Amino acid sequence: MSKVILSINAGSSSVKVSVFRGSSKDAEPSQLAEASVAGLTAPPSTLTYKRGDEKIKDQEIKDVNTQEDAFKYILEHLMNDDGLPELKNKEDIEFACHRVVHGGDFDKPTRIDRETYHHIEELSDLAPLHNAGALTIVKAVHEQLPKATNIAFFDSAFHSTIPEHIRTYPIDQERAKHNKLRKYGFHGLSYAFITRSVAESLNKPIDSLNIIALHLGSGASACSIVNGKSFDTTMGLTPLAGLPGATRSGSVDPSLIFHFTHTAGKPSRSSTKDLHITEAEEILNKKSGWNAIAGTTDFGVITSKAEKGDKNCQLAFDLFVDKILNFVGGYYVKMGGKLDALVFAGGIGEKGSQLRARVVEHLNCLGIELDEEKNKKPADKEVVDISKSGSKHKVLICQTDEQTEMARQCCQNADDFRKQA
Ligand SMILES: Nc1ncnc2c1ncn2[C@@H]1O[C@H](COP(=O)(O)OP(=O)(O)O)[C@@H](O)[C@H]1O
Ligand SMILES: CC(=O)OP(=O)(O)O
Ligand SMILES: [Mg+2]
Description:
Number of helices: 15
Catalytic activity: acetate + ATP = acetyl phosphate + ADP
Distance between the termini: 21 Å
Pathway: Metabolic intermediate biosynthesis; acetyl-CoA biosynthesis; acetyl-CoA from acetate: step 1/2
Binding site for Mg(2+): 9, 402
CATH topology of the largest domain: Nucleotidyltransferase, domain 5
Site (Transition state stabilizer): 187, 248
Bound molecules: adenosine-5'-diphosphate, acetylphosphate, magnesium ion
Cofactor: Mg(2+)
CATH architecture of the largest domain: 2-Layer Sandwich
CATH superfamily of the largest domain: ATPase, nucleotide binding domain
């Protein structure tokens, strides 16, 4: 029986694992099953599972609170599924692909050996909601699936093409170079998926595709993609910069934190031996964002409560729209108006029809217009065109899939990874 690929995506509020058959360069990986545990930041956690016609949706699960718990729970679920004969034995898994948010200077997927592991560990403080969690999963795979080859796919890699004047911070350059302080950018696996998928749907070669993509999930970012490559993105040295998210403030005046607390620079109580974060980072990463304004991390709830007149939810909604517009407007100008499409993706981008409507309403002045009826229908394929007829620029929804992107890149490089093993 051919071996399988396990694609593991440790997000800030969820862990998603997809199982794919095959690892050949010439074929697209074919998905056998997809499991996800969501709600890690807003318990109880829930399990969603899809295998063919077999579906479990939002089933509440107990005692699953961390990314590691979630992965172990999913692995057990997959191994015990009689309808998944491809995964009867642990030895059936050849590759475990891990989404690693911060990869520093790494610009391509890399087999995780001791050295890579330590490199990722060193970057943990720069992605406090992500890297350490992903590494707990790498460890769990190492212990429970000793035959599998672990590969890291870096969220920052897609942004290695951002020009110097855009990725440089205006600070002392010697210190900046020494401490590697620059814009890295994240959600790159998602943007790589979106770029390929939208180019295919518009029937354009990737290297002539110009889009503004919005990945709006628990973490939210925007990316200007010029000739198929990242030109600018809203996240920076860490995933805190740019747009606000479920528990993240996004960009604020850097002086704010010293007026918020007198202990900004002190180690946070949630620091561990593997993760050193300050009070400031704790507050801005974990105690801000929607949750701080509206009391929930769920943007679906925020949207419906805002519609019913909840003032705090309306404020969270309006604030998000405003910040998105800042970046879309700026990117549009920097791209000289050469735009094939504005693309919505991520949980909120894909499901939040009200948010899409409000954002695009403000962009009508740029010739970006959507069709209200098309916008309201749930997306039923990978790329859905919701533009108004006659709109100068297209508006699309892309159902992005970081696990599929990793599996695809894994298949393309499988021979190299085998050689490295
Ligand atoms: N109908 C909806 N309208 C707006 N947002 C929604 C809706 N359904 C789910 N969401 C939001 O999508 C977000 C999760 O996005 P997702 O990309 O799956 O998360 P993650 O960043 O953990 O990968 C949550 O904030 C969730 O509330
Ligand atoms: C980079 C990032 O913020 O990822 P996520 O949206 O999965 O938390
Ligand atoms: Mg995500």
